[in-house]
């Protein structure tokens, strides 16, 4: 091996991404320059599945809900790279048996979660499984074996992740690799280091359950893999291996195979999803998993118990049992909204409700009886509604359940893009004006208000738009106490419109619409992950005031120009985010923006995007939730908190950093949806300026806990500052299974892989191997049902 100078080595580490598996996210993948990321593989595969199940239109013009579902799945995939101690997550170290059992378990858990109507849990489980599927092709020699056998069509392994099948690795004594001719240099040499022993995968240093058994077993390889130096191997062997994770020969010894491995992994991703999950669930359940909208629904029929509660809730002067205390919110989540009816809920429960609504990108609409004694009881819910883009919906004495249901149904339009979301305080009968843009991508408009006696809408030329349903067939109006909702089903001509609110005091306004142009996501991210394999992941909690933050955003629809800006909730301009620019390299799913924000404001703010669409019309879109900056930074090892095993105790440390220039005392609590938290080690913490502290959250799901997601809220509230809150989307799962021999119908032995490949080549020559561009599964029909 030729020598690398120290300077050359350091330059490589500075200028190239560290790679131990397919790069997790597009940001760290340098937008494809260093390889096809897990994120891209997942998105490309799922878009083809959308086409198969939901039609061409769904694949080409996904809704906001579909976009978020895809982001949740790909995000869970990338998240797996924060854990490099468990080799079976990545099929490292010939962990074929354990990796196969993991894939079978995760498929079954995904099905159980989606059957329990838990879309978040199902997506997180599926995404994590897909990471393992994709790593099989980057870390094993399956691809190289196909090429050596002369395969004209690269075919995924037919048994990977299939229930009733088992993989058996080579014996620890079987040699699988020899030294590279030119080691890790960017010249020929390492692509011929495999021995013809059978299916193998590289060992990686630092995975305690899969230590490299001999120097003639393959290593993963790359500058950060120390396994090649075991057993007294000379330093010249450092970095040798077989991984195909990237297009950088410094980090992937089998760099020449990267593109084909990524292509094969993408096909295998599609096969795994359909073979193990979607072919076993209904079309409605597929729609839940992927976020597609299958049409109309009934609030009343879907949630009868909630309506019974609200029916009693609004019957005035009929008494409830005074001994009953509603300690939790009764919530209805439907369409794009969370509706809450509650009283006497502890502040921790209110905070959790807000966190869950924010996590789901829902506005939280708080439903309450319009009685004088309720004005103070519900102040916490009023704040939550305002912060999440919702309203306080008052039910008057003459309002019955049918009238309430009609009003809420109008609000619960699914997949509407937010255009303007404001709140403020005005004198009674004062008129407050706001301007906003209507563009031709909007198919309908929804205006909703609280604390408003009436409002008027004006054309760009100043003429009044008719909002009387009796005079305008396109206008549908509902009123409930001082709440008004107006749905316009035929949108007027594009231009700058004005809305005038006649206020009763505190007021809120939301303007949204059904549009093909929408802000699919805006999140503050940081480079994080297992050492040597970092990716862009959402920050834990709120951004820190006064500091800049890396931002990742997605916009769907056609536009020619656009820029982000921060505004107050009263719609006052704060600052434009000119450094957050379009990434022209990532074109597979919407328009991606990335860059660094200006210093985060001290007070809460809204995120807006303004621009010009492809027809030259001005448009505006908003992120519906307010951003609450903080003077304290939270962090935790997410890899430990993301998966909770039923019946098993898990303790997670949370780190608190006081970034303020003054000392502060913090009140601490943690709360979750399913009561798995059993202990928080501290309820109070004093930190000096710049000081760091730690507290532990102990959790134990019940032994019979249902598979699915559990939102865990961690709150650190400063006495002198707003503090910080963060949500962990944990997934509860049962104990992993060990497949009994009696249930295994197909065994795949590593030393028989070459014969398996030859058999598939023969099937292909005879036209029996059905795996063309539009073929998805081995013998399973793909159909919408």
From TrEMBL:
Signal peptide positions on this chain: 1-21
Taxonomic classification: Eukaryota, Fungi, Dikarya, Ascomycota, Pezizomycotina
Organism of this sequence: Drechslerella dactyloides (Nematode-trapping fungus)
This protein's record includes keyword Signal: yes
Keywords assigned by UniProt, alphabetized: Signal
Any Pfam family hit: VWA7_N
Protein's UniProt keywords contain Metal-binding: no
Protein name from the UniProt record: Uncharacterized protein
Domain Hemicentin/VWA7 galactose-binding stretches: 429-516
